[in-house]
Amino acid sequence: MSQPHSGPVPFSVEFFPPKDEAGEERLWRAVRIFEQLRPAFVSMTYGAGGGTRDRTVRIAGQLARDTTLLTVAHLTAVNHSLTELRALIGAYADQGITNILALRGDPPGNPLGEWVKHPDGVAYAEDLVRFVDELGDFQVGVASFPEGHHRAPTLEDDTKYLVAKLRAGAEYSITQMFFDVDDYLRLRDRVVAADPEQGAKPIIPGIMPITSLASVRRMLELSNSTLPADVDERLSRAAGDDEDRNREAVRSVGIDLATEMSERLIAEGVPALHFCSLNFAKATTEVLQRLGMDVLVP
Length: 298
Ligand code: FAD
Hints:
8-stranded parallel β-barrel; 11 helices; oxidoreductase; EC 1.5.1.54; methionine biosynthesis; MTHF_reductase_bac; FAD-linked_oxidoreductase-like
């Protein structure tokens, strides 16, 4: 079992590929702020399709080359043949990236729609983990789901498939964002019970400091996850009948929630905290400051 930390816990930050130049400028402003705070790593998500995929490869390369940050590049199996996957992994390696988060991905357009495997591709993230591992000296991570993946029939099945990804060679997992710490703790217990050796691998909790109730609700819907009733209640009360007008109140509750969750997770001995930054530095740095880290909020 993990031991509680005596010092500050390591943290990491997730970015996504911006759509346009303004978004890219915002991303780099956030990157430069986080760089000074020495995160354990940063990660760059891989788009569901279209141009953002090229941007992921390009920006992940820039992060690896032009900053001091350890970069984890996400990769999904959606609509890719093995030949394409091999080329993408090669493109990451050429840019000095050896850390890959291997994901199956969701169907483009409707993430909850039917998943169709590419005829020459892979069916599950487990297969992608093996594929990446066979291509070279990569450190591979995978996704985990405190509430269970929405396509897994039961939590036991969900645990079995996560353990299979870890046995296939993944060294750690990062969770989907969640808002009930007990869901995370139960996931950790399930993995340890299913396979103590794999259960010793880090399960890094994904934390989203909420700054907008409407947008977090949309994100949760797309991943079929939930806001616990008490959390929903606190945020809804802050939002009142006009979230736009009460944006600051919602944000303030969101930062409180992320801080409270992080404190409890640290006390429970998590290996690190992974923040979904949405390419902004302010909310995450506020949480880090509230956790006692020596951080100047931008
Ligand atoms: P898998 O592990 O393959 O699981 C998919 C489903 O199949 C699950 O229901 C699982 O229970 C089931 N399953 C697994 N193995 C088997 C088997 N052998 N037999 C039968 N069923 C099986 N999406 C993106 O598009 N880009 C990203 O950058 C991205 N980053 C993410 C980062 C994190 C930290 C997380 C948590 C998710 C991310 N996602 C991303 C979303 C992710 O791609 C989706 O949640 C996707 O639906 C599941 O991906 P997976 O890798 O967990 O798939």
